Amino acid sequence: MKKNGFALVEILVCMAVFSMVIFAVAQLFWVSQEAANLGREKLKASGLALEYQEGLKNLQRNSWDSLVNGRHLLQNVSGDLTLVPTEGAETLGRFSRYLIIETALRDQNGNIVSSGGIQDQSTKKITVNISWEGVHPGQMTYVSYLTRYFENLIWKQTTQAEFDLGEKQYVETTLVEDGEVQLEGGCGDNPKGAFIYDEGFENGWDIHPSAQNDIREVNAETGYVYAGELALEVSSFLGTSTKLRNGQNICTLGFTSLQFYAYNDAAVSQSFMIGGKWEQDFVEVVLPSRSWQYISLPYGDLTGGNEVNFNFIFFKAGSLYQTGTKFYLDQVTLGNGVGGYYQLGTLSSSVLDAGKTSAFNRISFNGDLPVNTVIGFQTAVSNSPAGPWVFYGPGGTTSDQDLYLEGQGSGLWLGANIGRYFRYKALLKSIDGENTPILKDVTINYSP
User: Fold this and answer.
1) Going by fewer Cβ within 10 Å, which terminus of the chain is more open, N or C?
2) For 51-86, how does the pLDDT look when each residue is reduced to its tens digit (9 = 90+)?
3) Is the domain defined by 206-335 classed in CATH 2.60.120.430?
4) For the domain bounded by 153-184+342-447, which CATH number is listed?
5) Which DSSP category does 406 fall into?
C-alpha cells in the first residue's frame, strides 16, 4: 500500500509538470503566432508605405512643384500618378493609408530640425500613415525626406567681364587670373589719420597762397573771433578760390566723404562751391547767415570717381557777384576710413534667369583673405528681372553684419530661396584698411 500510494503521487506530480510544460509550449506557440501575425501586418503596412514613397519619387523626378503641402492620397488618374487632396484615407481591405507633405525645417547649419528652423523649400518632409483593423489593430508612421536635386545646374562667375556686369561700390575688378574683385584704394604707405587741416598744417597738407585767404580778425557785429580758422574772401568780380594742397601726396584713397564746418559771414544766405579737381563740376553748398554748419560730401562727387586720389580741395564762391563775402572753414577731415583701402565695398551681381521657378540651393566662392579681411554674401530672389532686389543674410536681415561667412569653397545653405531670378551681393571688408580681400569666383547651385 505504501508503495502503491507513493507511485500514485509520483504520477500526479509528473502529470502536473507535464501540464505546465504543455501550457508553456502552447503559450510560446501562441505568442509566436501573434508575433508572426503582427509581423505580417507590419510587413504589409511597410509595403503600402513604400508604395507611396516610391510613387512620390516618380513625381519628384517629373515635377517638383507637384509636391504640394497638405494631406493627400496618391492615385492613378488616367494612367498618371496624381496627388489627390483628402481629409480621409484610402482603404485597402483591412488597411487604410494617407500621406502628409510638409516643407522641411533646417537650422543655420543646414541640419534638419523638427521645429524652430527655417523652411527649406528644396526639401519636403513626407509622412505616410498606415493603420489596420482586425483582431490585432495597429498603426504605423513612416517619415522620409525628398530633396530637389535632379537636374541641378550651376551658375559661375569668374571673369572680369562677368563681374563687370554687376553693380560695384568701392570695389574694382582686375584681370589677374582673368578676373578678381578687390576693394578700391591702396597707396602703399597708408596714413593713419583723416584730419586734413589743423592750425599748423602738421600732417602734410598746406594752404595754397591766394588773395586774403588767411583772415584773422574780430567781427564787429557778432564779436566772433575767427582766429585759427581757414578763410577765403571773394574780393573781385572774377571771384577768388582757396585750395588745400596735398603737398606730401598723402594717400586719401579709402575714405568716403569730405567733412568740415563752414561759416558764412554775410547777413544773408550765400553759397560756395567745393571740388576735388578744378576741371570737375563743383558741388554747391548753401550756408545760412552767420552760423556754423556741418558739411559732409561724398568723396566720389568731388573727384569724379572713387579711385582718384586728392591732390587739391578747391573752395570758391558760389556766385561771381558775391564780392566781399567771407567764408570760414574749420576741422576739415576725410571721413569713414583710415586710408589705403576702403573698409567696405560691395559687388551686386548681374541677374541669373533660371528659366522657370527654381530653388537656389547653395553658394560657394574662392578667394584670398589676408589678415583683418572678410568676404561675406547675401542673396536675393525675385519673380521679375527688375526686382525688387532685397538682399538677405542667413539671419533673414539686410544688415551688413548678417552674412554667409563659411570658408572658401564651402557650400552655404540659403534657406528659402524660391523664384525665377537670382542675384547675390558680395561684401568685401577690410577692418584696418591696410589689406583687401580678393574674390576670385562665385558658384551658385540651383534646381529648376
Assistant:
1) N
2) 888 888 888 877 777 889 999 998 888 878 889 999
3) yes
4) 2.60.120.260
5) P
